[in-house]
Structure prediction request, 754 residues.
Amino acid sequence: MTSKLLKSTALALVVSGAATAATADDLTLCWAAWDPANALIELSKDFEGKSGHDMSFEFVPWTSFADRMLNELNSQGQLCDLMIGDSQWIGAGAENGHYVKLNGFFDANGITMDDFIPATVTGYSEWPKGTPNYWALPAFGDVVGWTYRKDWFERPELQAEFQEKHGRALGVPSSLEELKDIAQFFQGRDIDGTTVYGAAIYTERGSEGITMGVTNALYNYGFLYENPDKPYDVDGFVNSDGAIAGLEYYKELYDTSVPPGSSNWYMGENIDAYRSGQVAMQMNFAFIWPGVEADPNVGGGKSGYFPNPAGPAGQFAQLGGQGISVVAYSEKQDAALEYIQWFAQPEVQSRWWELGGYSALKAVVEDPDFATSQPYAQTFLDSMAIVKDFWADPAYADLLLPMQERVHNYVVAGDGTAKEALDGLVRDWIEVFEDEGKL
Amino acid sequence: MPTSPLDKVAHATPRPVARRIRGLTDRAIAWIFVAPTIFLLLAVNIFPLIWTIRLSFTNYRVNRPNRDVEWIGLRNYERILTDPDIWATMQATAHFLIWTIVLQVLIGFALAYLINKKFKGNDLWTTIIVFPMMLSPAVVGNFWTFLYQPQIGLFNYAVAFFTGVEPASFSMIGDVHLAPWAIVIADTWMWTPFVMLICLAGLRSIPDTIYEAAECDRASKWRQFWTITVPMVLPFLMLAVLFRGIENFKMFDLVVQLTGGGPGNTTTLTSIDLKREAFEKWRTGLSSAYAVILFVTVFGLASIYVKALNKVKER
Prediction:
């Protein structure tokens, strides 16, 4: 009896081992090369152990991420089985057949989008927007916010000088105008024998940098992507008086408050400037905050965080972050779906947050201890509540490039006026929409 | 009995093959040897060129695989030739091309002239001067980005030392007036040694007897320079100008790394603009027309130049 039991157990083990070996796949996950990607490698070891699949990773620096990965998708390449693509790619991913639609899979496995932060579902998963058609699982919540040198702000002599000059305490700004005052206050100031500057802001020309920066001013001054009652009607909304004032604000911030030579800066350059003590504040996506806290120069309580301040038309912040999709050209879609099923589990999402990944699962962010779990956790929650995103249409790249060009040419190169820049952008966007058959 | 290795190989050739080869004419054998190269040339150069020309008459976009492709005649060409932004990139390219060639030829020739003189440490100096062209353009771009950094860049400090201006008061790659010169300086630093080497080859090819004859005729050094050195080095110089002209017309990596085409569009050269049209805006038809225009321009100018070069050589 014992012998029979042993034999059957051994046989079962062999069979299950063989079955695992037969179905084990080598999955490749494609994403940007940045800190959260390293955290995901660590997190994925759990999946490898549980599923028997091996994970490979293809990480590309942000400045060439879109070029490289959109090329891969457009050429129907099989490099990536899983893609953590930018939020704006969702339209092209869905309409051009690059991503697998996940509704059936979600229903079959009890995954519901009600469990995720609504802004991330709209931003990362849905296409068309506002409809229950899902092409990705929210993977990494991200938003533009501000980091500031709390230790500098708290210096009594600076407090007194700022109070005298502006009639209010030097602290977290409650409006974009206040933020500009603070940035100008620090510009060219000598702190501990070093000349420092006001703020590091996004100015990068080549990929998406300046657009991800300037929108934080535009939204709050009244810029709208389109007529709320008539889709793709952009004239008068993109170039409204408020939008023009927002663009002028950003240019003034650039002209008066940034380090010299910061004419082509994006995430990496802003981080470097902040960590090296060049600037009092930096605009950047929230993903950098765990790294700031861990930094010996600026971490450990020396830095504070605040959401993008309000403007005359409200308080909004540029959405970042991404959803994870299964690539339609992959031959290992079953294994890729297994990964998504594993990734959606609450305990995996909790661990994701602990490792430095920004979970979009409500169970994680609505946990009573979440807001105090990290110094930046509350700012992350506040920021995620005010997000807006760029176009996610299939023609997003055609819409992004003229914005990069028009805004950069005005803000950095000083070409023309804000009105001319935005009027030009309206012409460019109308041409794209006409070309796409939307108008 | 075969004795030499050649005989052994001939003997080892299977009889049917040997018979077949023996039956071929010299012309057929020549074709057999040339055919793989012709095939590769057709596959890698000619076919893509023809395909590009065909695409240039359509509205094809590689990122819209499901959209119908329409034949739109010369509309892409018309759009490119009437686009002021594209003309601005042509101007930026012309500025870059002309100044890099002028500076590289002047400095390269001067260095070659000095290196050609026999002095102690001649070889060491040659190696040091040639070093920049051994680097990758991406590395040079990165390197100069640091040199141009307003707060810590050595270039700014050197300018400050000689002129007295504050190092942080100007930004070579952030200022619309200075950025076009920033890329000219970096490229000149990298590629002047190449021009120097070609000029050096030209200088060393001049027989000493010509100078000796000139000395006998009591020609001054100045006269010898203008009537012997310059004319005899001229074909080499022209060759260097041709190489640098073609290379700089295609310049991409160094400038992308250094300025990314900015600030604004001040350093957006045609190759950078073409890449944006083709692989960022995904206007495949339009960018094909753009590529054809650039190809015709370079090919036409190079042909005229080569004819001039041949005339100089014949003199």
In short: The CA atoms of residues 207 and 232 of chain B lie 10 Å apart. The interface with chain A takes residues 62-66, 148-151, 168-171, 173-176, 256, 259-266, 276, 279-282 of chain B (CB under 8 Å).
